């Protein structure tokens, strides 16, 4: 048993389940865009494993770019205003954009990002998240492509962190408070 196996209280979603679901999402996206090119926008750093996996399951002309955002101290809890640490390097006007995210929790981050990117007039803008915690929502926002719904637990693994740790776990687990 390796060191990191000790942190798994319980495996909620196995690597096999993740792989299967990511394959299905990739196939759905391939079907929905019918041969059109798509730009996948990964939100650093939690989307890294999901981005690496899903981009290989989409049979379209795929390009990728990344953004990095951070909350304004505690104010994001109420306002949802986020600070853009790293913006896109790619223009998105007239393009099909899919935001690739680790989890939709309160929804505040994605709500802000969606508005921010819509201002650049993409042809379409959708949200794809491997996890959704609908019970925590503070703003009405829905993902277009969702991997799994999870309960209100603190999730780690497959990109999700606790103080930057555990992102590399190949499965989804959770930490007790
Ligand atoms: P929001 O609350 O929907 O704005 O989520 C913002 C960010 O909080 C997500 O992109 C994740 O990085 C992080 N986050 C939310 N829930 C969890 C969790 O259960 N574990 C680890 N990170 C989380
Ligand atoms: Mg994140």
Please tell me about this protein's structure:
Strand 2, helix 2 and strand 3 form a beta-alpha-beta unit. Helices cover 21% and strands 31% of the residues. With 177 residues, it is an alpha/beta fold. Bound molecules: inosinic acid (IMP) and magnesium ion. The site of inosinic acid has 15 residues, from strand 5, helix 3 and strand 8. The site of magnesium ion has 3 residues, from loops.
Give the tags.
177 residues; binds magnesium ion; binds inosinic acid; six-stranded mixed β-sheet; alpha/beta; Rossmann fold
Total E-strand runs:
9
Q: Characterize the biggest β-sheet.
A: 6 strands, mixed
Number of domains: 1
Q: Helix and strand string, N-terminal first?
A: EHEHEEEHEEEE
Tally of contiguous helical segments: 3
What is the averaged pLDDT score? 93
Q: What ligand species are in this complex?
A: inosinic acid, magnesium ion
Uncertain stretches: none
The name of the CATH architecture is: 3-Layer(aba) Sandwich
């Amino acid at each position: 048993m390796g060191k990191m196996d000790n942190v798994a209280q319980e495996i909620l979603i196995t690597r096999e389940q993740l792989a299967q679901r990511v394959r299905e999402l990739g196939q759905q996206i391939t079907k929905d865009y019918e041969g059109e090119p798509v730009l996948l926008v990964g939100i650093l750093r939690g989307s890294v494993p999901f981005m690496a996996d899903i981009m290989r399951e989409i049979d379209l002309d795929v390009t990728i770019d990344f953004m990095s955002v951070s909350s304004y101290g505690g104010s994001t809890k109420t306002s949802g205003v986020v600070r853009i640490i790293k913006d896109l390097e790619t223009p998105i006007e007239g393009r099909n954009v899919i935001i690739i995210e680790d989890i939709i929790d309160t929804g505040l981050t994605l709500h802000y990002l969606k508005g921010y990117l819509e201002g650049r007039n993409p042809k379409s803008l959708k949200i794809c998240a491997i996890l959704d915690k609908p019970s925590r929502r503070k703003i009405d926002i829905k993902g277009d492509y969702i991997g799994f719904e999870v309960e209100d637990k603190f999730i780690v693994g497959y990109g999700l962190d606790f103080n930057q740790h555990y992102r590399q776990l190949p499965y989804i687990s959770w930490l007790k408070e």
